[in-house]
Automatic annotation (TrEMBL), chain A:
Gene that specifies this protein: GPAT3
GO biological process: phospholipid biosynthetic process; triglyceride biosynthetic process
This protein's name: Glycerol-3-phosphate acyltransferase 3
Keyword Ribonucleoprotein: no
Pathway(s) it belongs to: Phospholipid metabolism; CDP-diacylglycerol biosynthesis; CDP-diacylglycerol from sn-glycerol 3-phosphate: step 1/3; Glycerolipid metabolism; triacylglycerol biosynthesis; Lipid metabolism
Automatic annotation (TrEMBL), chain B:
Keywords: Calcium, Cell membrane, Cytoplasm, Lipoprotein, Membrane, Metal-binding, Myristate, Nucleus, Phosphoprotein, Protein transport, Repeat, Transport
InterPro entries the record matches: Calcineurin_B_homologous, EF-hand-dom_pair, EF_Hand_1_Ca_BS, EF_hand_dom
Taxonomic source organism: Oncorhynchus tshawytscha
Subcellular location: Cell membrane; Cytoplasm; Nucleus
SUPFAM superfamilies cross-referenced by the UniProt entry: EF-hand
A Gene Ontology biological process term: protein transport
Protein name in UniProt: EF-hand domain-containing protein
GO molecular function: calcium ion binding
C-alpha cells in the first residue's frame, strides 16, 4: 500500500496540474479533480432576525397609534407569528441538519449533485473518468483492505484474549486494535489530521465527540485506544463486539438494559472508576448529525463523573460526504458509498479536559462542553435535540412561546427564564 | 431528497409559476428544492404532517393556522403550484410593480391580497367576518393557558369594539384593513438567492 500510495500521489499531482487544480496538499493515494462549475451558493435562504420575541414584537408594534397602549393585544400581533411560521417553512435550521450538507461547488460525485445542470462535455467526460477510477480502481483496493482489517481485529483480539498476563496482554491488545483500525482507515482512504495531541484522552476518563457517522469510531481509534460503549448487536457486529471484549473491557449493553438510565450510568461509573481502564468513547448527541452543527448533548454522559475529554471532528465535505443518513441508507450501502468517494479527509481536535464545576448541573456542563466543541470545529452550536430527526418536538416549547407572549399582553415584567431554543451564531 | 431536483420541474412549469407568482427562476428552483426536501413521501405533494415535521413551525402557537392556509378547501395535499401560490402572497412588493397597469389582474402579492390572506387566518369559516368566537380561538392559541377566560374575553371585546364600525359586533374585511394596513408588510419574506 505504501508503494502504490506513492504512485497514486505522483499521478495525482500530474493530473491535478493538467486540470488546473490549485492546491492539492493531501498525502493520500486518492486524487481529486476540481472544476468549479456553476457555483451554487447555499447560505441561509432568507435573512433571519436573530432577536427575541420581545425585540421583534417591539419592531412590529412600533407603528402603534397612541389609542392602543404599548402592551395590549392588537389584531396585528398575530403577524409576528405568521412571519416566523412562514420563515420556517421556507428555510429552517433543524431539518437541514439531518440531510447531507450542500456543497458550494460540485466535487464530481453524482450523490452530491442536487441541482443537476448539464454544463459541458468536458465535465461529463471527467466525471466519467472519475467514476471509473472510483469504482474500478479504488473500490476493490479498499474493500480488500477493509476485509483484512476486520478479520485481523477478530482473529487478533481472540488470540490476545487467551493470554493470562496483565501487562503484556494490554500492550498486545492495544497493538492489535491500533493496527486493525489503521488498516480500516486505509480501507476508507481516510486522511486524518490530529491537533493538540497533548490533550489526548487519558485512562479513566471519558471522551466525548460530535457524531456524524459510525466511521467516527475508526477515526478516533486510529490514534489511541478507547473502550467502546454501545448496544450489543447480533450477526457480524456481534461477532466483532464479542471478540473485542476478550482482549480489553468494552461496555456493551443489551437493548433492555439501555432503557434503565441508572443501570447504564452505574456501569459506566464503575468502568471509569477503575483507573486502569481505557477511556470511554461516548457520542452525547445520540444520533448522527450532518457535521454542520452540534445538537443538544444528552446529559447522561455528564452525570457519570470523572474527567471529560472533548474532541471535535470535522469532515471535509469536498472529498466525500461522511454523514450517515440512517433513514435513507442502511449501514452496508453507507459503507459502500464511503468506499466509492474520493477520500475521507478529517480534522480531529483534542480539547483540554473539562470537569464539572461547583454548582453546575449536568445540563449546563453538557452545554459548556458542546460550545467548546462547536467553537473548535467551526460548527453551529444548536440547542435543538438531535432526536428531532425521528421524534416530534416537545409541547413545552410551544407552551413557552405562549407564556412569553401572554406576559407581553398582560404587561408583566420580563421573566428570567431562558428560551429553551436559543441559538448562538457560528463562531 | 430527489437528486435531480430541477430536472423534475420542467421549464414550462417554471415559466408559468414565474408569471403567476412573480418569483424569479432561481427562487423557484431553490424553493422546489425545499419542497422536495419536505416531501418525505416523495409523491410530489405535501401533507399536514410534512409541515409539522419542521420543529420551528411545530412550536409556533399559530402553526396550525399557517399550515391550514396552504391547503385549499377540504383538501389534504398541496402540490408545488399551490405551495408557491401561497408563498407568493408574502413576496415583497417591488418598486416596478407599484405602478402597474390597473387593468391587468392584481398580482398575488398586492397589498390587499396580503391583507385578505391575514384576514382569512382569523376568519376560519370564511363568512367574511371575524366573529368574537373566532377571535377568541386565535387568542387562545397565542396565549395558551396563561390567561383566564374572562380576561381573554374582555381583550376580545375591546379589540372588536375598537375595530368595529358598523356595529355588528364582528370585524369585516374593510374594518380589518383599517387596523392591519400599517403592519401588513411586516410579514413579507425576502427570499435571498
Amino acid at each position: 500500500t505504501v508503494f502504490s500510495g506513492a504512485i497514486f500521489q505522483k499521478i495525482g499531482y500530474i493530473l491535478g496540474t493538467f486540470c488546473g487544480v490549485s492546491k492539492l496538499s493531501i498525502c493520500n493515494p486518492t486524487l481529486l479533480i476540481y472544476l468549479c462549475c456553476s457555483s451554487l451558493l447555499f447560505p441561509g435562504l432568507i435573512q433571519r432576525e436573530g432577536g427575541s420575541m420581545e425585540q421583534e414584537m417591539g419592531e412590529l408594534r412600533r407603528y402603534r397609534t397612541q389609542s392602543i397602549s404599548r402592551g395590549e393585544f392588537a389584531l396585528s400581533d398575530s403577524f409576528y407569528f405568521y412571519r416566523k411560521g412562514l420563515e420556517s417553512i421556507v428555510d429552517d435550521q433543524v431539518t437541514q441538519r439531518f440531510s447531507s450538507e450542500e456543497l458550494v461547488s460540485w466535487n464530481l460525485l453524482t450523490r452530491t449533485n442536487h441541482n443537476f445542470h448539464y454544463i459541458s462535455l468536458r465535465l461529463t467526460v471527467i466525471w466519467g473518468l472519475g467514476v471509473i477510477i472510483r469504482y474500478c480502481v479504488l473500490f476493490p483496493l479498499r474493500i480488500t483492505l477493509a476485509i483484512i482489517g476486520i478479520s485481523w481485529l477478530v482473529i487478533g483480539t481472540t488470540l490476545v484474549g487467551f493470554l493470562p498476563n496483565r501487562r503484556v496482554k494490554n500492550w498486545l491488545s492495544e497493538l492489535v486494535h491500533l493496527m486493525c483500525y489503521r488498516i480500516c482507515a486505509r480501507g476508507l482512504s481516510a486522511t486524518i489530521q490530529y491537533h493538540n495531541k497533548n490533550n489526548k484522552p487519558q485512562k479513566g476518563g471519558i471522551c466525548v465527540a460530535n457524531h456524524t457517522s459510525p466511521i467516527d469510531i475508526v477515526i478516533l481509534a486510529n490514534d489511541g485506544c478507547y473502550a467502546m460503549v454501545g448496544q450489543s448487536h447480533s450477526g457480524l457486529m456481534g461477532v466483532i463486539q464479542r471478540s473485542m471484549v476478550r482482549s480489553c473491557p468494552h461496555v456493551w449493553f443489551e437493548r433492555s438494559e439501555m432503557r434503565d438510565r441508572h443501570a447504564v450510568t452505574s456501569r459506566l461509573r464503575a468502568h471509569v472508576a477503575a483507573k486502569r481502564n481505557l477511556p470511554i468513547l461516548i457520542f452525547p448527541e445520540g444520533t448522527c448529525i450532518n457535521n454542520t452543527s452540534v445538537m443538544m448533548f444528552k446529559k447522561g454522559s455528564f452525570e457519570i463523573g470523572g474527567t471529560i475529554y472533548p474532541v471535535a471532528i470535522k469532515y471535509d465535505p469536498r472529498f466525500g460526504d461522511a454523514f450517515w443518513n440512517s433513514a435513507k441508507y442502511n449501514m452496508v450501502s453507507y459503507l459502500l458509498r464511503m468506499m466509492t468517494s474520493w477520500a475521507i479527509v478529517v480534522n480531529v481536535w483534542y480539547l483540554p479536559p473539562m470537569t464539572r464545576q461547583e454548582g453546575e448541573d449536568a445540563t449546563k456542563f453538557a452545554n459548556r462542553v458542546k460550545s467548546a466543541i462547536a467553537h473548535q470545529g467551526g460548527l453551529l452550536d444548536m440547542a435543538w435535540d438531535g432526536s428531532l430527526k425521528r421524534d416530534k418536538v416537545k409541547e413545552e416549547f410551544k407552551e413557552h412561546q405562549q407564556k412569553m407572549y401572554s406576559s407581553m399582553v398582560v404587561g408583566k415584567k420580563a421573566r428570567n427564564s431562558q428560551e429553551p431554543h436559543t441559538e448562538s451564531s457560528k463562531s | 431528497m430527489g437528486s435531480r431536483a430541477s430536472t423534475l420541474l420542467r421549464e414550462e412549469e417554471i415559466e408559468e409559476i414565474k408569471k403567476e407568482t412573480g418569483f424569479s427562476h432561481s427562487q423557484i428552483t431553490r424553493l422546489y428544492s425545499r419542497f422536495t426536501s419536505l416531501d418525505k413521501g416523495e409523491n410530489g405533494t405535501l401533507s399536514r404532517e410534512d409541515f409539522q415535521r419542521i420543529p420551528e413551525l411545530a412550536i409556533n402557537p399559530l402553526g396550525d393556522r399557517i399550515i391550514n392556509a396552504f391547503f385549499p378547501e377540504g383538501e389534504d395535499q398541496v402540490n408545488f403550484r399551490g405551495f408557491m401560490r401561497t408563498l407568493a402572497h408574502f413576496r415583497p412588493i417591488e418598486d416596478n410593480e407599484k405602478n402597474k397597469d390597473p387593468i391587468a389582474s392584481e398580482p398575488l402579492n398586492s397589498r390587499s391580497n396580503k391583507l385578505l390572506f391575514a384576514f382569512r387566518l382569523y376568519d376560519l369559516d370564511r363568512d367574511d367576518k371575524i366573529s368574537r368566537d373566532e377571535l377568541l380561538q386565535v387568542l387562545r392559541m397565542m396565549v395558551g393557558v396563561n390567561i383566564s377566560d374572562e380576561q381573554l374575553g374582555s381583550i376580545a371585546d375591546r379589540t372588536i369594539q375598537e375595530a368595529d364600525q358598523n356595529g355588528d359586533n364582528s370585524i369585516s374585511f374593510n374594518e380589518f384593513i383599517k387596523v392591519g394596513n400599517v403592519y401588513i408588510l411586516y410579514i413579507d419574506i425576502d427570499i435571498d438567492i
